[in-house]
Design brief:
The protein is of the alpha/beta class. It is 41% helix and 8% strand. Bound molecules: uracil (URA). The site of uracil has 13 residues, from helix 6.
Length: 308
């Protein structure tokens, strides 16, 4: 076996990998293992799938950055380098918001199972039903309705609170800074964003990014329930107190709901912190990672950092 020579990375890839490594470090994952391979053989061999070569390069770079990060971390500033959660600032001041009761809420009856090949169309039907919605006050301030994103046949679905400024502008959930962290969380689980499905309790941006009012959330969540029933993920992850409250109907502190599996509409529901909250208080990432590992176990996924 020839010694492995680290491959040079372009600056954008290096930054992305550095951010991923910081995320792993914040989660408490510091040990990485090098797979014994001949990198040149992998890259140069046309018989090998290009994605294998790319993965090898990425793993090598992760290893190098892990070492560089570890070397820098002594005396370096803590995870606060992540800064603040753009577009969600008013909601998160060091703790998840307390959500008012779900007065007037009735969870709709669970929909019939939709065959996998019909799920994309079924989601489009829900989107068409929403139309150019004016059902609640949020419509007046929105730029775009943010319906959802990802695979209609996903085994894993995430539910957030509501669009922020970036999402309102782009029409997609979790595309701002909190979205970057969610992408890292998904990657740390060994998945790609396109493999999961992501939606929110409310589909229009609350003014000033405030927590949705019960009337707004209750009005809009009927569509979320229909999305869940169509996608029928094996595992549903509620991101933060708003998602947990309006899915479970439980007005409990988040800490009482985290760390276990809730049976919910035919799925395993796991409650964890909202990524915007984690950006404000990165010390909780370890806790979030523990929650994600419960989700991974439910899905039969291997722990990141494992050799097997
Ligand atoms: N926060 C959310 O809850 N949802 C988004 O889509 C973005 C930020």
């Amino acid at each position: 076996m020839r010694p492995v020579v680290p491959r040079a990375l372009d600056p954008a890839s290096r930054d992305a990998l550095a951010e991923r490594m910081r995320f792993y470090r914040d989660l408490g994952l510091t040990d990485f293992y090098r797979r014994d391979v001949e990198p040149d053989a992998a890259v140069g061999d046309p018989k090998l799938d290009r994605s294998v070569a790319e993965e090898l390069a990425e793993r090598e770079a992760l290893l190098d950055l892990a070492i560089a990060d570890a070397a820098q971390s002594e005396g370096a500033p803590g995870p606060s380098h992540l800064g603040t959660a753009e577009g969600k600032q008013s909601n998160f001041f060091g703790e998840e918001p307390t959500i008012k009761t779900r007065k007037g809420f009735h969870a709709p009856e669970m929909g019939a199972v939709v065959p996998a090949e019909e799920r994309a169309t079924a989601l489009q039907v829900i989107r068409d039903d929403i139309g150019d919605c004016t059902r609640c006050a949020l419509h007046s301030g929105r730029h775009t309705i943010v319906f959802g994103d990802g695979s209609p046949t996903a085994r894993l679905m995430f539910v957030g609170e509501g669009p922020g400024a970036d999402e309102d502008a782009q029409g997609l959930p979790f595309v701002g800074r909190a979205g970057q962290l969610l992408n890292n969380m998904i990657a740390a689980m060994g998945l790609k964003r396109e493999e999961v499905y992501i939606a929110n309790v409310v589909k229009c941006r609350p003014p000033g990014n405030r927590t949705p009012e019960p009337e707004e959330a209750n009005t809009c969540s009927q569509f979320l329930f229909r999305q869940i029933d169509v996608v029928r993920p094996q595992v549903l992850v509620a991101l933060g107190a708003t998602a947990a409250t309006y899915l479970l109907g439980a007005r409990q502190p988040l800490t009482g709901l985290r760390g276990r599996v809730h049976a919910f509409r035919g799925t395993s529901l796991i409650v964890t912190y909202h990524p915007a909250f984690l950006l404000r208080d990165p010390r909780q990432k370890k806790e979030a990672w523990a929650d994600l590992q419960i989700a991974m176990k439910e899905l039969g996924l291997k722990k990141a950092g494992n050799r097997e």
